[in-house]
Design brief:
This protein is an all-beta fold. The protein has 2 domains: 79 residues, Immunoglobulin-like, CATH 2.60.40; 86 residues, Immunoglobulin-like (Sandwich), CATH 2.60.40. Helices cover 0% and strands 49% of the residues. The protein contains no helices and 18 strands. Strands 3, 4, 5, 7 and 8 form a 5-stranded antiparallel sheet that branches. Strands 12, 13, 14, 16 and 17 form a 5-stranded antiparallel sheet that branches. Strands 1-2-6 form a 3-stranded antiparallel sheet, with no helix packed on it. Strand 12 and strand 13 form a beta hairpin. The chain is elongated, with a radius of gyration of 21 Å. The two termini are 32 Å apart. This is Bacterial Ig domain-containing protein. It comes from Lactococcus cremoris subsp. cremoris GE214.
Length: 182
């Protein structure tokens, strides 16, 4: 998810339990740095802000409910704090399919189902067409896009097609029904 600069100084993406990165955007400039603390204890190194205003801080995994503070630091003229923003660590992200495009039988000429997913345990994807499972394809854990070639599979507008993501042991983590349109 892309962060937007909401208060004109710094904006931070949500942090979930177990996550080891804090990302966001802030004032652009080579003389700006950011760092994070938990209960007034520094939990990241001071990192330079990228030229486009984005930043990424490595942190140890945090527990849900922890209060974190991200500081924007101006390193010019001896250094000064520009701003800080506090956030609460949210519940761990679930492994899930986050979107699936409708599949149009007659106009999706390339024959792919496309969608997005997220989750640290999602490693594979497969389809179930009218109760029959298809081949399992590998995906990268984390957050990403998938596409599954469907054109050579036996489907029509009455078919029930489900997309599932699974973990390494092929345990189903999430399933979404594919909407098929004529």
């Amino acid at each position: 998810m892309k962060s937007e600069l909401k208060n004109c100084l710094i904006s931070v993406n949500a942090v979930h339990a177990g996550q080891t990165k804090i990302t966001g955007v802030c004032k652009k400039g080579s003389d700006y740095q950011v760092f994070a603390s938990n209960n007034n204890m520094m939990i990241s190194k001071r990192e330079n802000v990228n030229n486009d205003g984005t930043f990424s801080l490595s942190i140890p995994p945090q527990l849900e409910g922890q209060l974190l503070t991200v500081y924007l630091y101006h390193d010019k003229n001896g250094g000064s704090f520009e701003f800080s923003i506090a956030l609460v660590v949210e519940a761990a992200e679930l492994d899930k399919i986050t979107s699936v495009e409708d599949y149009c039988l007659f106009s999706d000429l390339d024959g792919f189902i496309r969608g997005t997913y997220r989750g640290p345990n999602a490693t594979k994807i497969f389809l179930t067409i009218d109760g029959v499972d298809t081949a399992i394809l590998t995906i990268n854990p984390g957050e990403g896009e998938f596409q599954y070639f469907l054109a050579n599979l036996p489907i029509d507008v009455l078919s029930e097609v489900f997309i599932s993501i699974v973990d390494k042991q092929e345990k189903i983590l999430d399933t979404q029904k594919l909407k098929i349109v004529p």
